[in-house]
Amino acid sequence: MLKVAEKIFTDVLVVGGGGAACTAAVAAARNGAKVALVSKGKTGNSGNTIMIGGSYGMDGESAYHDYHIEEADPTFTKEEMFKSIVNDGFNLSDQNLVEQFIEESPRIVYEVKEWGEEIGEKFRFYAPANWDVTGRSMGRALLAGVKKTPGVSIYDDVAIVELLKNGEQVTGALGIELYTGRLLQFEAKATILGTGGFQPYTLKNTNTDMTGDGQAMAYRAGAKLADMEFMLFLMSAIEPNNMRGSILPAICTFRRAFNYDPVDCNGDKIEVPEALREMEATSEMSKLVHMFYFGRVINQGRGSKNGGIYFDFSRFTDEEIDTMFDAVMEHFDGFYRHGYYHGESVIEYREMAKKKRKIEVGLSSEYSVGGIFIDENMFTGVPGLYAAGEVASGAFGANRVADAVTEMIVQGYKAGEVAAQRTAAQELVGTASESVEQAVGMIQSLLDNDSNVTVGQLLHQMETVTDDALGMVRNQERLEKGLDIYHQLDEAVEKVVIHSKSLVYNRELMQALQVKNLVTCSRVATEMALARKESRGLHLREDYPYIDNVDWQVRLLAHCEDGKDILEKKVPDVTKIPLRKPEKIDYESFILEEDLGMKNLEEK
Amino acid sequence: MTAKIYRFDPTIDKQPHYDAFELDIKAEDCMTVMDLLTYIADNLDGSLSFFSHSACQHGICGRCGVKCNGKPGLACETVLTGEDVTIEPIKADVVKDLVVKN
Known about the structure:
The structure holds 2 protein chains of 2 kinds. Chain A is of the alpha/beta class. Among the domains of chain A are: 234-365; 435-553, Methane Monooxygenase Hydroxylase, Chain G, domain 1, CATH 1.20.58. Chain A contains 17 helices and 27 strands. In chain A, α10 (318-332) packs antiparallel against α11 (346-356) and α14 packs parallel to α16 (507-531). The longest helix of chain A has 25 residues, at 507-531. Chain A is globular and about 70 Å long. Chain B has one helix at residues 33-44; strands at 2-7, 17-22, 65-68, 71-74, 85-89, 94-96, 99-100. Chain B contains 1 helix and 7 strands; from the N terminus they run ββαβββββ. In chain B, strands 2-1-5-3-4 form a 5-stranded mixed β-sheet, covered by helices on one side. Chain B has a two-stranded antiparallel ribbon with strand order 6-7. Chain B has one domain (2-100): Ubiquitin-like (UB roll) (Roll). Chain B starts with a strand and ends with a strand. By secondary structure, chain B is α+β, with helices and mostly antiparallel strands. In chain B, β6 (94-96) and β7 (99-100) form a beta hairpin. The A-B interface holds A 17, 40-42, 45-47, 50-51, 135-136, 157, 159, 178-179, 207-209, 239-243, 245-246, 342-344, 454-456, 459-460, 497-500, 502, 504-508, 510 and B 9-12, 29-32, 35, 41-43, 45-50, 52-63, 74, 76-77, 79, 95-97, 99, 101.
């Protein structure tokens, strides 16, 4: 039988290795807490944090007046930013969370930049008030911030598999030290989840650790999940296969000098209204535009052979294509070795564009807008449990256009502060022994399974059904079918065979635990997508092509009761911008006519 | 093509050994070593371990190093040519199969 190898006692346990977790650890330690920072990967070199391909920032007013940055554009005011986040989120944001985002972000946004610059990382400012930065630089900056903060103990390559409880309270977590197989029991007064998103699709542009662990563990521990139906996709490479999932194609479209014709499998041009195409160079709203116009074509069976579309360059000369890609490479000079974007060769991609003239691209899973329900203090409602960053939900409503990087660090910092302050005078409660037994038993029972169901089969099945049910454009029939399969997968994953019985880097066991978590997230997301009989933000229903502000200007929350998902509606918290009048509006007319798209992308 | 993979489970094995897998992979498939290992683990032998718990897949994290035909490189960046390959851990002190402490 498996046994806990070591108990570790701390004040605040922070789970995760990216921006939310690192800033939470720093803030908690600064507020006097002893902190254990536990990451499935390496702190500062894991999660979606290192996948950052762009920038992060604050409002222009703060940058100009408070941080005295002369190039900043103070006309991008806090008020402007607030309006953008709420409008671009189709009015589902909890506005108290938006206020927290705007009011508290400048300090930590600026400080993280300083952590980075102190160790020689490059942060390049552009107006209104953003900095270009690579994922690795951001990761190194965060790690530097953690390392210079006394009171934080780092546990890398430890996968937290279950939260531990005593009664209603979360009292810590159980983890597997991956390289030794030792089980670690963390005992804490407060636990903060900064574990990132969930990406259950075949094509994704995320780190392999984005498996919904935090959302699913919190859900099992009694927390609510919210807004899970809103999934963000981004244009990515399908070919060449060695670049599959790279967001290089999207990064190219962000450059004004870059041009292409989007075409379907017949070579016919996919029409996108000019005003919306324009957004590629100015706003992250272009992601939603691509999902809407390209997703529709793919849904009609006119997509490419791998479920994407094509970038057609046939009307451009070789010289014109060279000029386009020169603009891409120029943008990244100084950030990566010349001609590269992360590990991808821009030159190889350019040469393929010239040779084939038509490149297959797809929309890959990038970011889960939904997650754990939190209040403006990042508190989940379950005593002792906080969540921050992509794992949580609430600030961005039905669509994210503002910086996810800013989100993770401003929420992480808040969670750390609050968790430390609230528990400063408390004693450790201690985990109930049955909670530890249950968590250890979950691993043991997987190892004891005797069946011929493999994790690989289940993973493949889950990704395929998610592509179909929870893809960019949805309908009732496919969602219902998906939900049936998720229920079957829930049972199947409990019976899966694990060939090696040791916990020492047991990849198959890790995959099984992750698939279990991903199925939980996908199941809840599907229930919400099925319930939401309208189109809003990133949730597009071909059978309900209108925004329904009569019945659906509400968030969906779920909690688990006796193994069943119970959904409820919640009216978004309003602090400044009133909800829209109760009427139904055609989705396409809305995105064409409304002033959407936070202008935070273009370099002036 | 044949892929020979280094195997070693310290909880069972006294000595490492190699397992051979026959696969139909051509140069034009642009498959990476990471794709190959994932394919084997998901479809042919679930017990195979390689660095996969926090992998960026795009040459960012730098943690998936292996030796392919004796040459060290990142599994996510090394593209197969369709020729036979031997995949081994990038350094001594093996945790399991191709996994090293990194």
